[in-house]
Amino acid sequence: MAKNTDQPFVPASTTMAELTLKAVLLGVLMAIGLGAANAYLGMKAGLTVAATFPAAVVAMAALRLFNGTVLEENVARTTASVGEALVAGAIFTIPAFVISGAWESLRYWESTAIMMIGGILGVLFVIVLRRTLVVEADLPFPESVAAAEIVKAGQGGQTGAAAVFGAMGLAALWELFKNSNGIQFVESSVQKFYSFGKSNIEILGNKIEYGGGILLETPSASPALVGVGFIVGMRVSAVLFAGAVLGWWMLVPLAVFLNPSLAEGLDDASLLNLASDIWSKQVRPLAVGTMIVAAFYTLWNLRGSLIAGIGKALKDLTAKSGGEEVLRTEKDLDFKKIFMAIGVMAVATFFLYYYFAQSVPGALVLTAVMVVLGFLFAAVAGYLVALIGSSNNPISGLTLSALLISAVLMVLMGLTGIKGVAAVLGVAGVVCCVAGVAGDMMQDLKVGHILGGTPWRMEIGEIIGVIVAASVLAFPLMALDKVYHIGSAELPAPQAGLMALMATGIVGGEMAWPLVIVGMFLAVGLILIGSPSPMLVAVGMYLPFYSTAAIFVGGLLRALFEWWAERSNATEEEKTKAENTGILLSSGFIAGEALMAVALAFLVLGGDFYPPMIAFHQKMAGSITPRFWLSLIMYPALAYLLVYLPVKKMRE
Questions:
Q1: Spatial contact of 477 and 39, defined as CB atoms under 8 Å apart
Q2: What is the Cα–Cα distance from 104 to 225, expressed in whole angstroms?
Q3: pLDDT (tens digit, 9 = 90+) per residue, 535-561?
Q4: What are the beta bridge partners of residue 195?
């Protein structure tokens, strides 16, 4: 990737409008809209759409009408994207209260308190970590670079705008044709279970017949995921894909092979469901165990930078005014006030947990766990976003880790039953919001760092966005629960269901601990052999195969591009130009697909409450049978656009 982010787009010496009323107001409105759309999408499909890209495009288009500056656009985008991040934390955990039976229906005040506390703490923790991860660590931040390139291309006179917006249009149209909420002509991925031949093995004098098989799935024909792989490069995408290979092509077949009775007499459709069930209920918890150890290992590897960053923060607490002048682009909010605010939020957390657990010792322990794990996972979420982007940030995996630890503590303290479950889910909810907001904000701060934004102004925008979004987003969640009933086939909320299962399983004494422990040992083994990133391997095991495979395809295209560029005997300047062309195109793919997914989410949400809005769309979509062979068109198209076209531009 071209290292062109050292000098900010807007120099530190330049002063222009930034934290203005119009920028914050636009950001808040987008935070509510994008957050509400993603709430439905996430509980319906188990996925959310990163709001950084659509927010950047909408901010550019809207503020251009009011002569807005690039830094105002940056603040509006920063404020907006927190809505999606906050709602991701909410939908992965808060519906679990209903699914587990702790609540009969969603509650406004409790839900708002979880989102408010978790969101604000996420912002505060990231402020402390900003310099370490954004400035000092040499991390790629693929989606941050992509978002910054979109903003740059959108400015008057910037070259590359045609590449970005052309790629956006292509990806948006493709998403319309492959999204089940759109006009689905394309089946973006297919899977098939292939049975092995049976073998007879003698163990302790008994002959046992083994069969089993393997589930094969094609990469998703997703320009956005391929674009992410192109931006992060071959190494990161390969490590991520290694986790998918380990989970899907080793552990799942092994589970079927060693339990032949599971697959006996099943047809093809049932075998697919069996393999998916094994991955969801056995491999994923194992991956969570790997994540627990990998999270602490990741923090250990960052200890030098983190200690230096925290040391600087403590030094700033006692620094006298009138010292060395700090550049505008390096000014954070006052650290003394930040640590005081963390203390205030910890007190608020104690009262929230006391409300759930009805136990002072339990609330104190859970508060301590939340603060420690919240800071730890804020650092890890920021680190993962720096590697693979916010769209692939496995905050639900981090949240499960927090849930496991807090649940065990509650059992040891004797806090079981429905109060214990509610208290554990309360910890999970706050930590999930912390991790979601932290990862998203780290990405936003990196974009601001590239563009030349002022950190403290962006941080204020994030805090405002969290407060407003947390106050409003409980209403669409409650409405969706009333219309569709959380946990039903219409609104399954898969991550929340998993959280509820884990909480009730542990507190009720039915948790399969061997899976988690084996996952921990797997992480130890990966560390001992010097695996590039145990956390990425665990993430690859945890995510669906089609997504990690698509990212790997993007990494392969990046490797092919670099090989071709090297053979062309190009100068460094020409290679940089070609790389930037590929990054601009990848940025457009990511933004276009995300924009269309959000637009379709709004369409579905509106149509659910006013059917005539989508009557024609439903009639047209119902007459179409999606075809997989159409998805094959996208792969040569992406190879042409990301490999051939940049090399061609390099030669011009």
A1: yes
A2: 38
A3: 788 878 877 888 889 889 999 999 999
A4: 213
